[in-house]
Queue: 3 jobs
Job 1
Amino acid sequence: MNAGILSACFFCVSLASAQAQVANKYNITPEEQAACQVDATTLCSHVYPDQDALVACMRSNESSLTPLCRKTFTAGLQKRHM
């Protein structure tokens, strides 16, 4: 394997690891992510990957969330005492 490919693989693994750490700050479950991924992307992509800003953006757009995401997001906030 040449050095360029090895460097690219290492970069991808590092990036995936960093993204997993960001995505896990609030211990978001796969179910929560699935319920709100489209809403978060549509309404709040401009703040990614800052998860604090994402939560604030989702809160400020709560009336625009799809019903499943709104229910899941609200329950997640309550579960996390936020």
Job 2
Amino acid sequence: MSDRPTRMDPRDATELRAVITCMGRKTHATIIDISMGGMCIYLNSHIPISPEEEIEIKTEEMGYLTGTVRWFRRPRLGVQLDMSSNTAAKVQSYYKKYIKHYLMA
């Protein structure tokens, strides 16, 4: 058995430009997949990041989100979003507007 956490929600491929902030340092990035509870992010340049770090994610489509790094394998990281009602509304709005299969459900 694996010690890796299991995903709660299925992820959908995307290509969202983002700015990631961790410990006061920023880098441009691309969100390469997203779910209602998390995302995988491809960092464009190196900044100090490790699992359990709190990060801020800024996108044009969803504004500011916060989350916790769950894994990091340079240049990719997995993030669990801090699921306040505001964050959930932002992610759900993104799905309604941009993810086609969501509209068919």
Job 3
Amino acid sequence: MTSQRSISDLAALIQNKTHILSDGTKEQPGSDFSLAFAIPPAAVKLDTSLEAVRTEIIEAADELRARLMGPFLYMGSLALPVPALMVIFDCLYRFEIASHVPTMPGEAVTYENLAIRCGMPLDDLRRVMQTAIAYRIFEEVVPDVSVKHNGVMR
């Protein structure tokens, strides 16, 4: 389906609807829509109208991204991450990396300690973790020093 909206219109729609969503969820747990790890997990409650607003934002953001990238780059962005994610998840599983990262919100582990716990060479572990961080699977607390869980992995 081809959109008749300009990219400026899409950006304005995203901004406008985001304000509506933000105003409609104020003071609720999870209203910042963060991926931060919390106990219990923060899940914002949306009524039917706010769920429709969120859906509209997601669809407009995806359309804006696709149109800014163009057909070739957009299709590549859909296909290329899949093999990388498979390798990353295989490493995370095979070396039980997630189980060696502290599970309390805010707690972190250094790359060095994590490499020792997982039995992985430090450079390899750092590459795996930084790729996982790029896909928002973990968070880096101190750049090139320590990592922690976020809401995606935990």
